[in-house]
Specification:
681 residues, six-stranded mixed β-sheet, five-stranded parallel β-sheet, 26 helices, alpha/beta
Length: 681
Amino acid sequence: MIFYKYLVNCAGLELEKEMQNKEDREKLYSRNSPIEEWNRDFCASYKMDKKSYLVISDLLREKMTIVAAHQADASSRTCDSLLLKILPDVRILKREEITGEEFERELIRAEKNEWMNNSAGYTLKKMRLNIQPECYSFFEPAPYQVSERIYTTDGVTRETIGKQMEKILASQNFYEEIDRIFSNENEKRFAGHPVHYLISAGDKAAADDMLEVLIPSLLKNERLLSSRVYDVQKITDKAGRDENFANVFEAAQGGTVVLNLEGEKNIGQYATGYYKLAEKLGEKLSEYGNKVLFVFVDISGNRSVSDETMAMILAHADMIQIQEGHGNLEQATGYLKQLAEKTDYKGYTMEDLVRYLPKEKELYSVSDIFQAYNRWYGSGLKTHVYRAYKEKDLVKIELKKKMDKPYEELQKMVGLTDVKKVVDEILATAKMQKMRKSMGLPKLQTSMHMLFSGNPGTAKTTVARLLAQVLKEEEVLKNGHIVECGRQDLVGKYVGWTAQIVEDKFLSARGGILFIDEAYSLVEDGRTYGAEAINTIVQQMENYRDEVIVIFAGYPEKMREFLQQNEGLASRIAFHLNFPDYSADELTQILDLMLEKSAYRMTAETRNKCLEICENACQEPNFGNGRYVRNLLDHAVMRQAERLFRENRGGELSKEEACMLQAEDFEPIGMEKKESRKIGF
């Protein structure tokens, strides 16, 4: 929908003659008014062709206000024609685009004037123009927030856009996209959206500055029918279940929806947070992608959805990623000055601004600049507004806990010497390909698919998750997420379902890793659907060769048999990583790490007993490796709790006692003949 407000000269309607006295005026503002009749005519016309819904909302002297909700795919002249058809004696003075919120206010005004047959609320609901969340409360916050704004093309030229991009330190890929938008190869008409956008920035305000360039550029080149933009923020996983959330896209036809993926992090067991929301957004992108421009805003470190979910959404359309840029000190200072000039602060110097920039850097990211601006602005509150705090400095709090980088975390894992060596080879190969590309040499099409073989509890899944993040950092993978699945996630219930399910998994894994646990279970039961899954996997491994890395994992012997039965699959796997069983000493080291993370300790005597328990466990078949140690610790914690409450009944318990595990807390765990299948470490 595109919303318009008309201002018309209605002297030809001679309504002034009908307001000679109080009685006449009351009649004009009633359901017996000719204005109410004209509004009924507008409503009847809309019911017939569903193109333009017009309402007379106000009358002041000889000027009449009329608002319209107009279908985006119909010419605006259609709306003008309908107005003049119903009111041939008026003259259009002005027509401007307005927000849906202003359209709603005018409907309410018309309702108060008793010029509408139906209420404003009923009309909006029937036209699916209710976009605010339907149900929320103090205890159940709104599942999303939405606001509107109108962009303008006043003064927009290729030159002014270029100057604006210089001021905001636009990145190279942003310049390239603006060149494509203004290219003379394009026809100057709207025919749909060839691409949608993903804006990656370190600050919401930086993303807004990028939108201030992107949207007017598209409008200037007739790539958008409407200058109205819906800004959707604080989206939760419950948004997809709110009926009015779907109305946002219905009402936005012809315009733009900006979806800010900033919010509370929600990651499930397999890092697939907000899966249902992703499905909903993917559906809307497919349904409205030609009529609505989708712009996803990804604020670094504050995204509410996981990498896998993000990849799942973006797989439904062609996306152009626009990243924030960088600049030298002079450019960064210029941008800072531009931001500072928008405030009410006076009397500051350039030195005041620059001192908040990071020290000893040659290039400054836009995130650096906005962080410096926010710190300067916060300090300015004390020096310019709340002067009583001028001499008060805050105490800087040092955060002791720092997360290791994925590669460092992988190297710190106990054992896995051969695995770490192969990972280094994979990374070296990836780096060499990047160097060759920078030298102008052709890229060697190498396969990156892998096979992880090892007994349960040997850290196959943990290594896969870390590897995904490492390859993201090395720019081998675009997103660095991991999609974990087993037989039940790949095989359909009916004929024809399996191929589509497998392809959907590859789509979800684009830019990341598809981890298939116990892959041999697809064919070991002899059912045809499993064979169909294998054939489809082989096909998709080729189709997504440069976008998805597939890792097959499972028991060593069964994986060997699996590959022998599928020669086409075996030829596509480049790296074979063997995860050996842990030794007793390695299992005890793993226990040390688990204790450290859980703030528990044990004496040397207790550690010796644990080493002995692990030595005995290693003699048993299928003892569980790392899982055995985790279970051993879980049981010890429960025994310690029971012991402490028994020994200190009615007394006090010290912190030292609560953290110390004694030898008597650790006892061997009985071996089971079979372990239940479970994905993960």
